[in-house]
Design goal:
Elements: H1 10-18, H2 32-44, H3 48-52, H4 74-84, H5 87-100, H6 105-108, H7 110-115, H8 120-129, H9 135-163, E1 168-174, H10 184-190, E2 195-196, E3 201-202, E4 209-212, E5 220-227, H11 233-247, E6 252-259, E7 263-265, H12 273-279, H13 288-298, E8 305-310, H14 319-332, E9 335-342, H15 352-360, E10 364-368, H16 370-382
Parallel strand pairs: 5-6, 5-8, 8-9, 9-10
Antiparallel strand pairs: 1-4, 2-3, 6-7
Length: 383
C-alpha cells in the first residue's frame, strides 16, 4: 500500500472523480492516487449507468483487467480504503458497497467483519445476510451487532428515562431545581426587573421550575407489533432497542411481537436486543390482521394497554379484518398507535389509505423517532 492519500492537484482529483473513462485524457499518477483510483473503480465500476454508457465494469469476480492491473478482493478493498481515505469517506464507501451494490461478502467474510467499522448500515446488512453466514462469521457479526446496539441504546435509554421521569405540569411550579424542569417563560417574566439595559443582560435572581406528575403505581402493558418486511429494517432495529429500554422501567410490562405472514412472540428476549435482532427473519409477506389478533389475546386490562403497531400498512391479508380488530381494541379501551416508521430519521413510506381507515376507527397513526415515541407513551400513561 502506498500510504494515505493526500489532496492531489485539481487535475488528478478530476481523474479520480471521472474514473477509468478519463484515463486516455488524464493519466493517474502512481502511488496513493493510483491505489485510490483502483479502490474507487472496484466499487463504482459496477454502476449500471456506466455500463449503459459503454464504460467497462470492473466486477468483483474479474481475474484480471485488459491492462494487467491487479484486481482487489473484498478484504483487500476494505484494507485499502481504511489506509487511503478519511473516516467520513470510508463510511460512505462501505455504505454504498452494502446498500447500493449489494456486495454481500462485505458482511459475510470473516476477515472483513473483523476489520470493518460498526455502523447502523452494517447492522442492517447483517440482518439481511445472517442466514448466509457460517458459525465463525456469525460470531463476528454478533459482536458487530452488539456494538451498534450499545451505541443506539446509550442514547435512547437517556431519552426514555427523561420521558418517563414524570410528565411536566405547567400549571404547578416546583421548588426542586432540576434542569429538565426549567420553566423558561416563567423565569423571564419573574426576573424582568433585573434587566440591565446598559449591559443588555437579564440577571436571573429566581429561576422557575415546573412540577412533574408522579406515575401511577398500577402496571401498564406495552405491546409492540413489529413488521419484519425488508423495508422496515430500520424500524425493527430501533423497536428492539426501544423494547429493551421500556422493559427496564418499573410498572411496565413490555411484549414484542414480530410478524410477516406468521406471528413470532419474542418477548422472552426483550431484555437482550442483540439476541432479539439475531432471531428476526426479514422479508416475506405481511399479515397485519393476524398480528393484531395476537395482540388482542394478550390484553388483560384494556384501559392500561398501549398497542404500538410498527408497519408500512401494506396488508397482505384481509384489510377489512385488520380495521375490524383495531376498532375492537379501541372500543375496549386500549390505545392503538400505528407507526409508519420508528427510526432516527422518521421518514415514512406507507399505505396511506389503510392508515386513514385505522385513524377513522380510533387509532393514532404517524412516524416517530424512538425519543418521540417515549415522550408520547409517557404522556398517554400520565393521563
Amino acid at each position: 500500500m502506498s500510504g494515505p492519500l493526500t489532496l492531489p492537484d485539481p487535475l488528478v482529483r478530476w481523474r479520480l472523480l471521472l474514473g477509468e473513462a478519463a484515463e486516455s485524457c488524464i493519466a493517474c499518477p502512481a502511488g496513493a492516487a493510483s491505489a485510490a483510483d483502483e479502490a474507487l473503480e472496484w466499487l463504482y465500476g459496477r454502476d449500471p449507468e456506466r455500463l449503459a454508457r459503454g464504460e467497462r465494469q470492473q466486477s468483483q469476480d474479474r481475474t484480471g483487467s485488459p491492462d494487467g492491473a491487479s484486481v482487489l478482493s473484498t478484504p483487500d478493498w476494505i484494507n485499502a480504503i481504511h489506509e487511503l481515505f478519511p473516516q467520513e469517506v470510508i463510511e460512505r464507501l462501505e455504505r454504498d458497497a452494502v446498500e447500493r451494490f449489494g456486495i454481500d461478502d462485505v458482511v459475510t467474510n470473516l476477515e472483513v467483519l473483523e476489520r470493518i467499522e460498526p455502523s447502523e448500515t452494517l447492522l442492517r446488512a447483517v440482518l439481511h445476510t445472517k442466514h448466509l453466514m457460517n458459525p465463525d462469521v456469525l460470531t463476528a457479526a454478533r459482536r458487530l451487532v452488539a456494538e451498534v446496539v450499545r451505541r443506539i441504546m446509550e442514547k435512547l435509554v437517556t431519552e426514555v428515562r427523561q420521558a418517563f421521569g414524570g410528565s411536566r405540569d405547567r400549571r404547578r411550579p416546583s421548588r426542586i431545581a432540576a434542569a429538565a424542569n426549567f420553566d423558561f417563560k416563567r423565569t423571564v417574566a419573574a426576573n424582568l426587573k433585573h434587566w440591565d439595559p446598559e449591559r443588555r443582560k437579564l440577571y436571573i435572581k429566581r429561576p422557575a421550575f415546573i412540577s412533574r406528575v408522579k406515575r401511577h403505581a398500577e402496571r401498564w402493558d406495552i405491546i409492540l407489533l413489529i413488521d419484519q418486511s425488508g423495508s422496515m429494517v430500520d424500524s425493527v432495529i430501533h423497536s428492539a432497542v426501544m423494547a429493551a429500554c421500556l422493559w427496564q422501567l418499573p410498572g411496565m410490562r413490555t411484549s414484542l411481537i414480530a410478524f410477516d405472514t406468521e406471528v413470532v412472540d419474542l418477548t422472552a428476549d426483550v431484555s437482550d436486543p442483540v439476541e432479539l435482532l439475531m432471531k428476526v427473519q426479514l422479508g416475506g409477506g405481511t399479515n397485519i390482521a393476524g398480528a393484531v389478533a395476537y395482540a388482542q389475546s394478550l390484553v388483560v386490562n384494556p384501559q392500561r394497554t398501549v398497542v404500538v403497531l410498527v408497519s408500512d400498512f401494506y396488508e397482505g391479508g384481509h384489510d377489512t379484518e385488520l380495521v375490524r380488530r383495531v376498532q375492537a381494541l379501541v372500543s375496549a379501551g386500549a390505545t392503538v398507535l400505528g407507526l409508519a416508521a420508528l427510526d432516527s430519521a422518521a421518514n415514512p413510506s406507507y399505505d396511506r389509505e389503510t392508515a386513514a381507515r385505522l385513524v377513522r376507527v380510533g387509532a393514532h397513526v404517524g412516524a416517530m423517532t424512538p425519543g418521540q415515541l417515549a415522550a408520547w407513551l409517557a404522556e398517554k400513561i400520565a393521563q
